[in-house]
Each structure stands twice: as structure tokens, then as C-alpha cells.
Amino acid sequence: MATFQEKYINPFTDFGFKKLFGSEFNKDLLIDFLNQTLGGREHIQDLTYLNSESQGKSESDRKAVFDLYCENERGEKFIIEVQNVLQFYFKDRSLFYATFPIQEQAIRGRDWNYALKAIYTIGILNFSFPDSRGDQRYRREVRLMDVETHEVFYDKLTFIYLEMPNFQKKEEELETQFDKWLFLLKNLPKFQERPVKLQERIFERVFQEAEIAKLNSEDMRAYDESLKIYRDNYSIMETRKLEMEQARQEGLEKGLQEGRQEGRQEGRQEGLEEGKQKGRIEIARTMKQAGLPLEQIASLTGLSQDQIHQL
């Protein structure tokens, strides 16, 4: 059962997110959130909710089930997804899902010049991507790029990921409407009263819709079930973090011990460096056995994905 110490629903649950953004009545909330997320580059006047389940060309093809799937007044498509746990091949999944609204635009039975409307994937993530530069970005925008000139090669396929753990701003640090949206989504279940900086009408609507006390019995049951799934996922995520840290510590200690031993025996710096490398390999092997994605292991250990694949 949901705890009534919490006044407002958790927007990272399936029920909570769709309660706030998934109905015609609350369409203005989604429009404002998307406009802010797009950074003012795209101004959405209106949205139409589309079927959240997309089938391939035949019944045997795999299908995509979106959290929310919308179209603006220019026919541009928006996939909005909430993800609580980093999955294997998450990036592949994002790209695969984006192919459905692309294929839907094909005009069959007559000539077609391949002109496409833009596709936007908005991912609200309760985790962070491994970042080789160590950046703590909370908004990551990805498009097809020319790797030599760094110019955008194709601007009609955009992936925007909001990495919520990296958003650390406090209320007094909020500057933009986008800041306020992220602050609200990250902290909504913790609020007992509306923060001073969230007094605008659009946020008043969010708080009204999010009150647990206003849920009817059917919605309460649905929210409880959704909250249970969220908590199970959270437990999995925390377990992975602990396993990863344990693997890192064990591998590092083993590598340092071997390095010190070889360094003493040989009296050379090379022994210590070789031991450290063995430690990185041991860390990578343990993380791989724990089921962590190769790109994440590579980012944390400094090994290449090819090296990790061969372990």
C-alpha cells in the first residue's frame, strides 16, 4: 500500500506519470514540459495522443509499447518514456523504438519522396549514463553527427535524456522553468506543501492532480501496484550499485596487492603498473559476471569493450 505520509504521487511510477501527463485534460502540462525540455527550439502549440502500442509491418514483427506517444500540429512525433533501471542495450532499445514512427510515415500504394517529419524521443531516467569525461550532465541531447566536422548530419531524429540523479539544484538555485520542472519531478513525493518557487499556475495544476488523497479506490489500487513495481526496480538498482562498488573495491585491492608484491620482488615500477592492470581486469571480470553493460564497465575501468568482451 502507498504510504500516506506522502501527500503526492511518485511521477516515476507508471500510474503517476500517466496521471500527470497522459490525459487530454492534462495535455497543457505535457506541452509545457516538452517545450521546456526542448529548450525553446521547438514550440508546441497542440498535441494529439496516439496509440501507445505500435505494431511492425506484420503480426510476427516485434511491437513497441510507449509510455506516451504524441503528435504535434505539424505531424512531428514525440515518444516520452520513463526508465527507472539501466537495461542491457538501452540505447539500442531507444533507437529501435524510434524506427516505428519513422516507418509509419511511409506512403504506400503511390509515389513517395521519402520526406519525413521529425521524431523526438524524450527519456526521463532515474539513472545516469556512464560518462567518459566524468560530466554530471542532467540533460543529454543526441543527434546524428558528422564525426569529422561535428556538424549535425540529420536534424529530424533527436534523443533527449534527462538524467535525474545528476540534477542536484536546490529550490533557491532554480532559475528557469525547465529547472523547476526537473526539481518538481525529482522531489514531488517529498513535498508536504508547495515550494515558493513552484507557485505558477501550471505547477498548481500538477499538485492538484498529484494529491494521493484525491484518488478514488480504483486509482488507489492501480497506484499501489505501480508503486510496488517502482520499489522493486529501485531495489534492483541499489543492489547493482552495491555489487559494482564491491567489485571495484575487491578488484582494486587485489590489483594493488599483486602490484606491491611484484614491485617488491622485481624492484621495478613496471610490476606495480602491471598489478594495477590486473586489478582493472579483475574489476571488469567481476562487473561482467554481475551483468553490467559493457560500455559502463569500460567507462569505470578504462579497458576497451573488446578487452572486456574477451574476459
Automatic annotation (TrEMBL):
Highest rank taxon of the organism: Bacteria
Membrane spanning stretches: none
Protein name, UniProt field: Rpn family recombination-promoting nuclease/putative transposase
Region described as Disordered: spans on this chain: 247-280
Signal peptide, first to last residue: none
